[in-house]
Write a structure and sequence with these properties.
The complex is a heterodimer of chains A (497) and B (92).
Chain A: H1 3-34, H2 37-44, H3 55-68, E1 74-78, E2 87-93, E3 96-102, E4 109-110, H4 119-127, H5 135-156, H6 172-186, H7 188-201, H8 203-206, H9 208-215, H10 218-225, H11 246-255, E5 262-268, E6 276-281, E7 293-297, H12 312-325, H13 331-362, H14 368-397, H15 405-426, H16 429-454, H17 456-464, H18 468-496
Antiparallel strand pairs in A: 1-2, 1-5, 2-3, 3-4, 5-6, 6-7
Chain B: H1 2-17, H2 20-27, H3 33-57, H4 61-91
The chains are: A alpha+beta (497), B mainly alpha (92).
């Protein structure tokens, strides 16, 4: 191989990884948590109760909507499933939107605590809380650089192919280098999938001039690629929507075999004679973001003409979108993807630590650049897990009826992270690592204890109802606490030696 | 899916043992040329069979392929960890 080419690849790998490494770590870490977005949301809203989706649930939803709404433009019934356990009704009058959460007892209205739940991590990983300030462009740019770092990494760590399945345990730097190369190699398919699909989701936004040229704007292009249904005439004569869903349910069963195939039911202009019902199927049968949909009349339940087939480009984009979000994944596959996400975060973290340690071995006196990288490593790699634990703790500790509670949880996340930055700046590096890891471990152990102390019935119910979401969350947090503790003890022992 | 995944890890294990240093660390004897070829062929055959069973039995296929790829990464990591533990023990 041309030595100049190899050198260029090493340079590219080092610098693309170094410049955007911390940002990529944050994106991958929070993105991995997003695989469990509904589960995290369920844990963060313990007021939700176990509701099984049945035909009865739909008819009770319709009864409730008939009771509480007059002349709405839209009704929506979100059916509960194991992941969300959230049965909610939505309706809209013009720009006025309403949401109602229901419990197992059909007349019971539930008011879950105000929280962004797992959605905070999902939104943060693609917009960095900078949605109106170019956050999505920054993340897209980072995803492109991640692909560059992966491909240049293949040439940088080319010796790995002859040392495949090798991870030399012993010296920290050797182990880290082997781990970095191995993790890089085995996560190549995952990284390519997740980065390219992430770019594809906002492809229209990243190529605005093409959208302007071909369709006169981004929105028009989206509409042209995936045509929607005809607009309903708002002046059409009024008619009450059906109150018994059985007639529609029977027709649905002819198309979709199996139990609990409905995910969501939307009534568009329910009080109009031209009103319609759109039924969305569950997503676990297709890679595509868009599951199958059936359309019926909202007055008599007669089948109507459905959606026109989307263009090939739109279908490809939907599959990439679906692959990125992995809504199709069962619990096993979701854990697998979550682990691959964490492995990618560890890959990035190990790359940043290797860069620093290799250079510190070569110089007698560390320079400003080394100081900056060292402190950023501590603040980001050590600080982000602590901020995440603090976010979960705030969910349990902030008063339930506090005004602006959801925003305060996010503020706790960022304030904790800010404290981590200060710790990394003012404490000696090794002590700062140990402090942050110990604090994360302490937070992880504290979380289930607080949960039990606040309401021990929650845990009892979870055990009796075999609520795996709730129980797994508690177990995983305890496991993470153990991992943080072990790491901190190992670092402290190494420092003392 | 279980058959496919089991064949996959068996195939990867064989392929890893077809490498001289891993074989030597595991069995404390050198790898002969004939054995190397046999283990390699067995490894590729098992992996190929794993793909065959995936396409034959798993449903829906696109989702199963994603699963297969995910398990591939995790299995390589697992086998690497096993070999590294064996090598560390042999060293001590």
């Amino acid at each position: 191989m041309n030595p100049d080419f190899t050198k260029s690849m090493i340079w590219l790998h080092t610098h693309s990884g170094l410049v955007l490494g911390w940002l990529l770590f944050v994106i991958f870490f929070t993105g991995s948590l997003s695989y469990f977005n509904p589960e995290i949301s369920q844990w963060m809203k313990p007021e939700l109760v176990n509701v099984t989706s049945t035909e009865n649930v739909i008819n009770h939803s319709l009864k409730k909507l008939h009771q509480v709404t007059v002349n709405s433009d839209m009704w929506r019934i979100n059916l509960p499933n194991e992941r969300t356990q959230h049965w909610s009704l939505q309706w809209r009058n013009g720009s006025e939107r309403h949401v109602l959460s229901l419990g197992a007892n059909f007349d019971q209205v539930i008011k879950p605590r105000d929280t962004y739940g797992g959605n905070f991590f999902r939104k943060f990983h693609y917009s960095l809380q900078l949605r109106d300030y170019g956050g999505r462009y920054i993340v897209g740019f980072s995803a492109m650089f991640m692909l560059v770092a992966v491909f240049s990494g293949i040439f940088t760590h080319r010796r790995l192919f002859s040392n495949f399945f090798t991870l030399r345990l012993g010296k920290l730097l050797t182990t880290l280098t082997d781990f970095h190369a191995l993790a890089g190699l085995i996560t190549i398919p995952y990284i390519i999938m997740v980065c390219s699909s992430g770019i594809m989701i906002y492809a229209i936004m990243y190529l605005p001039f093409s959208a302007d040229h071909f369709a006169g704007g981004q929105r028009n292009l989206s509409r042209a690629l995936s045509p929607g249904l005809e607009v309903i005439d708002k002046n059409a004569p009024s008619q009450l929507p059906l109150s018994d869903f059985t007639v529609v349910q029977n027709k649905i069963e002819q198309h979709w075999q199996g139990q609990n195939q409905i995910r969501r039911i939307t009534f568009e202009q329910p009080f109009s004679r031209e009103g319609r019902i759109i039924v969305d199927r569950v997503k676990n049968l297709t890679l595509s973001k868009q599951s199958e949909r059936l359309v019926f009349s909202s007055n008599d339940g007669k089948p109507l003409q459905g959606y026109a087939q989307a263009s090939n480009a739109a279908q490809v984009r939907r599959i990439f979108f679906g692959l990125h979000e992995a809504q199709f994944a069962d619990i096993g596959l979701r854990w697998l993807l979550f682990l691959l996400g964490l492995l990618t975060s560890a890959l990035i973290a190990s790359g940043l630590i290797i860069w620093l340690n290799k250079r510190l071995l070569r110089v007698k006196q560390p320079q400003l650049g080394h100081f900056v990288v060292e402190r950023l490593n501590i603040a980001v790699i050590g600080g982000l897990p602590l901020a995440t634990v603090a976010f979960f703790l705030s969910n349990r500790l902030l008063p339930q009826l506090l005004e602006g509670r959801a925003i305060m949880e996010v503020q706790v996340f960022f304030l904790t992270w800010m404290v981590c930055v200060l710790v990394s700046l003012f404490r000696p590096a090794k002590k700062a690592w140990v402090d942050l890891l110990l604090a994360s471990a302490f937070g992880c152990y504290l979380l289930p204890i607080i949960d039990l102390y606040q309401d021990s019935q929650r845990m009892k119910d979870a055990i009796l109802e075999v609520n795996l979401v709730y129980l797994t969350f508690a177990l995983f947090i305890l496991l993470m606490g153990f991992v943080f503790m072990k790491l901190a003890c190992w670092l402290r022992a190494k420092d003392a030696a | 899916m279980i058959i496919s995944i089991s064949l996959q890890i068996f195939g990867l294990l064989c392929l890893s043992l077809a490498m001289e240093k891993h074989f030597k660390a595991t069995f404390a004897r050198p790898l002969t040329q004939q054995l190397k070829l046999s283990v390699k062929v067995l490894g590729f055959f098992a992996t190929g069979l794993s793909v065959f069973f995936l396409l034959l039995l798993a449903h829906p296929i696109p989702i199963s392929i994603v699963k297969w790829m995910g398990f591939l990464s995790v299995h390589i990591l697992l086998i690497s960890l096993i070999h590294s533990r064996i090598a560390l023990k042999a060293k001590r």
